[in-house]
Amino acid sequence: MLSELRIENLGAIAKAEVPLQGGFTVLTGETGVGKTMLAVGLRLVGGGRGDAARVRGGAERAVVEARFELPGPDVLDDEVREFLDSAGVDLDDEDVLVLRTLGKDGRSKAFIGGRAVPLGTLSAFADPLLNVHGQHDQLRLLKSGEQLAALDRFAGEKIAGPLAKWRAAYARFGQLGAELAELQSNEEGRAAEAERLAEGIRRIAEADPEPGEDESLAAEIRRLSDLDDLRERAHAAHLLLTGEDPENPEGGAAGAASALGQVGTILASAEDPRLRELADRAAEAGTLVAELGLDLGAYLGDLPSDSSALEAKLDRQAQLKALVRAYATDVDGVLRWAAEAQARLERIGGGTEAVAKVQAELDATKAELDQLAGKLTAIRRKAADGLQKAVNQELAGLSMGGAALAVGVEPSGKHGPNGADEVGFALKAAGSGEPIALAKGASGGELSRIMLALELVLARGREQVTMVFDEVDSGVGGRAAVGIGQRLARLGRHCQVLAVTHLPQVAAYADAHIRIEPAEQGAAASGGKASQVRQLSREERVVELARMLAGMAETETGRAHADELLSKAEQDKG
Predict the structure, then answer these.
(1) Tally of CA atoms within 13 A in the half-sphere of 171 that contains its CB
(2) pLDDT of amino acid 349
(3) CA distances (Å), 470 to each of 6, 235, 400, 502, in order?
(4) How far is it, in rounded angstroms, from Cα 384 to Cα 422?
(5) What is the C-alpha to C-alpha distance for residues 427 and 266, in angstroms, rounded to an integer?
(6) Closest CA relative to residue 241, chosen from 278, 296, 284, 283
(7) Which ranges of the chain have pLDDT less than 70?
(8) Which segments constitute the RecF/RecN/SMC N-terminal domain (predicted)?
(9) What is the pLDDT of residue 541?
(10) Nearest CA to 401 among 435, 428, 439, 361?
(11) CB 134 within 8 A of CB 39
(12) How far apart are CA 121 and CA 513, in angstroms?
């Protein structure tokens, strides 16, 4: 329920804190003081669209702040709860503060628990907690979609499971239909794609590249491009070490290895121990030099004797570059493309088989939808009987002259997101024959009473909801007004009810009475006339009811009549 409501710069209200409590609270006031702004404010914190024209003149923005007492986080949709948890909103608290701002430029912001949230999240958060009905909302009853939604709300859990299965199957049916259409319409295009993929796979398979081959090949080409320089350097080093010239085997001179051998012999034959110790080191150096000479000889032997090796590497590089240009940015990418192309080729290469497979899935889903459609129709027809019975029980006390609501459910034969049924609300006059659709046979006053009766029925079991009625009793008076007051009071025993009304018969049944009135002299800001909000005592309620009865607030007769009305309502409520 709502425990606090604060409004700033909204319409005629410059600043107001609205005292709220459980039960049935009524809001009244003279025309033009801004009664409806309270309902507008509640629509804003409920995530409704904002109208910049509602911002009070001279103000930069309007602000509406509401504190919701949560019966528990489970009342919220899982997706909403997860979003708010991730945003850092503590849903374990007993209440949550919601704030909505509306700038004069039309820009709007929403906050839950001090965290900024999208309007869609605010709307989803408030949906199970707040239900606002205005005097024009009765026109929604004329729409078939709204009538179906109301019937499904009444059916509750009995239809929730089958309807969820229907929606999943309906979405799958649409996806399969689109896939089948693509397969059938793009058969020629798929054939061309398959040919292109197969050609690419063939080219890559013929080249048979290795992972990273382009990089290793580039390094090898750089080495072979300097072949003469490499041979010259290796040859010179080998000659110095070994004294052996591969190009002139007989004309070599002593090399470093031979010299080190002579050094070792000289040192080993010396009488000085220190020199003999150095002979071992000379022998070690000779071994290292000999090994280095062998390695250089092997290197020289491995070098190509002509440029054919380089040309072969360059040809291979050109082959790989052609593949890279066609399919990727490097050889590894080419290999990935080949793997993906093979998988894609297998998917689209089925041709007729793929079409047949999707068609079979589509037919199976269609059969599932037909079965679910029959189940939904049966559930709705049973719920329709219960709904019209419950609504008509409420209408009996609202001076409908014996007229009754008839709820019809007929299969349309057309699949939609909510099934394949057409739901129609009709009004059956007392003693008449066929019911007449609401759009053709119901007056504004009758629509108001039907909507109220419907909401009274649908509110059962939704104790966490705050029900707001903004002058939904327009076009109603007399005994019907008393009936509305009685039913709103009864509804207030189960959930919080707020009603903006001009009917004293309705106001008399409230548990709390709030008056919106012109602010005292000097309270108005630059925005012109201002209004204030005040909770009335019982004596003040009598004065207000007298004013509402016939503008007789200042007469004893008027007050006596009002006191009688209030006492009768109090007695009625027990």
Answers:
(1) 5
(2) 67
(3) 18, 104, 21, 10
(4) 12
(5) 130
(6) 296
(7) 72-75, 77, 79, 92-93, 135-136, 227-229, 231, 244-255, 257, 304-307, 349-352, 432-433, 461, 475, 520-529, 552-553
(8) 1-522
(9) 94
(10) 428
(11) yes
(12) 32
> What would the pLDDT profile of 28-45 be if each residue is shown by its tens digit?
988 877 788 888 999 999
CA distance 99 to 116: 9
Note the residue count of the chain.
574
Residue 479's pLDDT is 83
Longest dimension (CA), the chain: 149
Interstrand relation of 496-500 and 466-470 (parallel, antiparallel or unpaired): parallel
Cα-based torsion angle of the residue sequence 242, 247, 251, 257 in order, rounded to the nearest 10 degrees: 0
Pairing of strands 95-103, 108-112: antiparallel
pLDDT score at 307: 67
β-strand pairing of 419-428 with 436-437: antiparallel
Structure tokens of 116?
């900024």
* CA-angle at 479, arms to 408 and 483, nearest 5°: 60
CA distance 444 to 503: 16
Instruction: Read off the pLDDT of residues 513-544 as tens digits, 9 standing for 90 and up.
Output: 999 888 765 555 455 567 788 899 999 999 99
DSSP string, 43-100: HHHTTPPP-GGGBPTT-SEEEEEEEEEPS-GGGS-HHHHHHHHHTT--TTSSEEEEEE
Q: Give the C-alpha separation, 439 to 210, whole Å.
A: 75
- The answer for 112, left when phi > 0, alpha when psi is -120 to 50, beta otherwise, is beta
Q: How far apart are CA 115 and CA 98, in angstroms?
A: 9
Cα 204–chain centre separation: 44
**Alpha helices by DSSP H, 156-304:** 157-185, 187-207, 213-225, 227-242, 256-268, 273-302
CA 421 remoteness from chain centre = 28
End-to-end CA distance of the chain: 24
Cβ-count burial of 180 within 10 angstroms (0-12 exposed, 13-18 middle, 19+ buried)?
middle
- The structure's pTM equals 0.64
**How far is Cα 45 from Cα 110, in angstroms, rounded to an integer?**
8
Residue with structure tokens 């080190």?
260
**CA-closest candidate to residue 454, choices 431, 441, 438, 477:** 438
pLDDT given for residue 41 in this prediction = 92
Cβ within 8 Å of residue 116, ≥6 positions away:
109, 110
- Do 217 and 331 meet the contact criterion of CB atoms below 8 Å apart? no
Q: What is the mean pLDDT of the chain?
A: 85
How far, CA to CA in Å, does 150 sit from each of 144, 414, 445?
Answer: 10, 20, 20
Angle of helix 352-395 versus helix 144-155 axis, rounded to 10: 80
Supply the Cα-derived Rg of the chain in whole angstroms: 45
CA distance 559 to 553: 6
Question: Which tokens hold the place of 430?
Answer: 């007392």
